[in-house]
């Protein structure tokens, strides 16, 4: 917390300096005011023209127009990429390099088109626009709890012979991380290429400052993503929320869990922690390998051939539906994660079951959820019964009336906190990943997910959804009484949720 305070004060001092600088020219106020008004108008026109979602930018427009100095400075520094920083350019260049290693087998897309044109449209979008290829699924396993997948992670890590890539939003000292760390140290000493990425903000209070130096001393190559600095920066608001583990290019893990004890219920914070994980074996692992390397090579500045990390699988592996691991990049102009969610809702005929810890929605997502329910689709959303952040939970509940009115069913997970991020639809489609239904995940963070079609594991995901719903309490319209102060407070929080 001391570090957060120092950084916060440093940023405040910078803003005060900007204001003081302008006040020094007070005798020219009329001309400065005109110039600022013109600047604010230009910024607003820029926002309207280039915004991926105008609803997401309403607060910025208000701030820039009402407070031209404060609003313009804030927007130029953390609100948008009006000017491209060196780091942003490096990330986009690295993403482009990663995409050059990803090639789609057109025969697979043709097969899907013959089966289902709607699903073909979705997967064609991910393949052609987001640049993540679709594969025949080989071996995919779904784990309904963090502790379940953690055991398998440990088993697979012990088998590593060539490399281990780990990228997580949160790494926290405790039983879970220590169990992994012991293996990483052992493997690094044996000559295995071990690499770790953690997010500085996500792990701010869970590991010491400059923790990556300690890991490097142990022979574990480590990078801290976007290290928080006491200088206002363009990328400060963009975090690495991905959860990726790749071992020898043979197996990959992803899902909702971070590396901290509450995720495997070794430590109780908000009742029972409901999370999940997914394990992939087969050619689709390559998507996660390149996704890891695109971030690694930005901050490590290594120039390497990705192909040496690609495992050659036997061609006679068992095929089980289709799979497409994908990434979300907040610096491009494409809302891949949200578009995947919305397309699932638009294609649904029978049901869509959803897990999300947060429910802070834009107009497009609200429209898609409501329209699906109005069409007769059984739309069910499971959110926490015990929140981890009370203010965010208050905002989540403020969306209930809009959704319930259209027939969307909302359940609160009675035993505790649900951190899973899952969509499962019509017994044939599912996605398991890191994207919450909130502005941070859908607009600000680097994220990832695994899209599945006609894979047998989908029935396991559905079964988990049904069991979780059975343990949850349905929200009734009658229980949504609210006072005027609460209504106004939630309205303000919702306005600021687009900025946070």
Please describe the structure with a list of short key phrases separated by commas or semicolons.
single chain; 500 residues; alpha/beta; Endonuclease, Chain A; nine-stranded mixed sheet; seven-stranded mixed sheet
Notes on the protein architecture:
The protein is an alpha/beta fold. The protein has three domains: 2-79, no CATH class; 86-122 and 137-322, Endonuclease Chain A (Endonuclease, Chain A, 2-Layer Sandwich), CATH 3.30.870; 336-497, 2-Layer Sandwich (Endonuclease, Chain A), CATH 3.30.870.10. Helices cover 45% and strands 18% of the residues. The protein has helices spanning 2-23, 29-50, 58-66, 68-79, 86-99, 106-115, 117-128, 146-158, 175-189, 211-217, 285-299, 336-347, 363-374, 390-398, 400-404, 439-444, 457-470, 484-497; strands at residues 135-136, 139-143, 163-168, 193-199, 221-225, 243-247, 251-255, 272-274, 277-281, 322-328, 351-355, 378-384, 409-413, 416-418, 422-425, 429-433, 447-453, 472-474. Helix 2 packs across helix 4, helix 5 (86-99) runs antiparallel to helix 11 and helix 8 runs parallel beside helix 9 (175-189). The longest helix has 22 residues, at 2-23. It is globular and about 75 Å long.
Estimated structural class: alpha/beta
How are the strands ordered across the major sheet?
A: 1-10-17-16-15-11-12-13-18
Q: What's the overall geometry?
A: globular
Number of helices, counting only DSSP H or I runs of 4 residues or more:
18
* Strand element count: 18
* Helix content percent band: 40-55%
* Residues in β-strands, percent: 15-25%
CATH topology call of the largest domain: Endonuclease, Chain A
Count structural domains. Answer: 3
Low-confidence stretches: none
Q: How many strands, which pairing sense, and closed or not: the largest β-sheet?
A: 9 strands, mixed
Q: What is the gyration radius calculated from CA atoms? A: 23 Å
